[in-house]
Amino acid sequence: MPIISAPQDFHEDELFVDLRELYGWPLYLKCEGFNFAGSVKMKAAGSMIDAAERAGVLDRDSILVESSSGNLGLALSMICAARGYRFVCVVDSRTNLTTRQAIESLGGEVHLITEASGPGGFLGARLEHVRRLVAADPRHVWLNQHANADNWKAHYRTTAPAIHRQFPGLRVLFVGAGTTGTLMGCARYFKNVVGSRVTVVGVDSVGSVTFGGRPGPRMIPGLGAGVRPPIFDPRFVDDVVSVHEADTVRTCHRLARSGFLFGGSTGTVVTGALRWLDRHHPGEDVPAVAISPDLGDRYLDTIYRTAWVQDIYGLDECAAARSAGADAVTPGVN
After folding, report:
1. Which domain-ending residue is among 142, 172, 202?
2. How far apart are CA 182 and CA 240, in angstroms?
3. pLDDT interval class at 248 (50, 70, 90)
4. Res. 203: pLDDT tops 90
5. Angle between helices 41-54 and 149-157 (to 10 degrees)
6. Of 60, 196, 202, 290, which one's alpha carbon is 20 to 30 angstroms from that of 278?
7. Comparing C-alpha atoms, which of 125, 106, 107 is closest to residue 115?
């Protein structure tokens, strides 16, 4: 039994769910939601704060400030509470209410952005707000997860090696793209350490610009970006799959009807993985892993609430999600 003294000291890094029985593909889901922050972002948060402390940019008067769609903000608020730092989290109206409330419960200050800004959308508006805060008060320290190499280094050191240990014969890795920290850390590891035999596939939301797509509305926080993250390097990614949010909802409900309550990002990644496998390896037994960033409890008011799904995606999509039948996700259909 582990005994810890700080929230970031615990993370279950060896848990995988076998989705073969559910979907018929040899796809294993690496679950990153089993820590006190409930998401993969605890790794990046700890890595970036530790690096800032080593560099001497943090002191007891510092106020950490970060733009977040929710999960990183929650992770940072936990570590800041444990280490005695003030924390300001800049979120937008898509951030789950429960996540915002949790950040405030941990002592963080939430700044809510309600209007998008030009081509950068809500992310652009959040970043503008952060820049204004930093310019107005020298005590503010911006970790800048979108440009901070210690974001991806966390996954180069932990997430990717854990996958490699469990699946030394891995052929395909599916990683969702938000800030691209998880994607870049895992992709760099498998390309630099393991070699080119592992195909790294980035999974994104339709409406995101990260991989050159056209900007569009997105309602589910986590994956996707209105501004291309500076840490993203396309040389390490072999292929890309984009997923419509309605299909994300279907997959989340399909998984939930099988007893697994995962977050929206997981629904997106699983949908993209199934379609890619069907398109590139139909009928083949190819060892593949997809990364699940978080669990579904903080999405109960959105993707798991009938009225919200009806309002955002229409009654037909909601009915398809609720049915959770075997055809709720159809591999090979875009």
Report:
1. 142
2. 15
3. very high
4. yes
5. 120
6. 196
7. 125
Residue range(s) defining the domain that contains residue 75: 41-142
- Kindly state whether residues 171 and 301 are assigned to the same domain: yes
- Report the alpha-carbon distance of residue 232 to residue 30 in Å, rounded: 22
| Rounded-to-integer distance, Cα 140 and Cα 57, Å | 10
In a domain, 303, yes or no: yes
225: confidence class by pLDDT, cuts 50, 70, 90? confident
Which of 314, 75, 53 is closest to 179 using CA atoms? 75
Measure the CA–CA gap between 67 and 112, rounded to whole angstroms.
Answer: 10
Does residue 63 sit in the same domain as residue 113?
yes
d(CA 45, CA 143): 9
Q: Are 156 and 127 in contact (CB under 8 A)?
A: no
CB 296 within 8 A of CB 261: yes
Mean pLDDT for 303-312 is 92
The DSSP result for 122-149, as a single string, is: HHHHHHHHHHHHHHH-TTEEE--TTT-H
Residues with Cβ within 8 Å of 150's Cβ and at least 6 positions away in sequence, in order, are: 44, 47, 48, 50, 51
* Residues 202 and 64 reside in one and the same domain: no
pLDDT at res. 317: 47
Indicate if the pLDDT at residue 268 is higher than 50.
yes
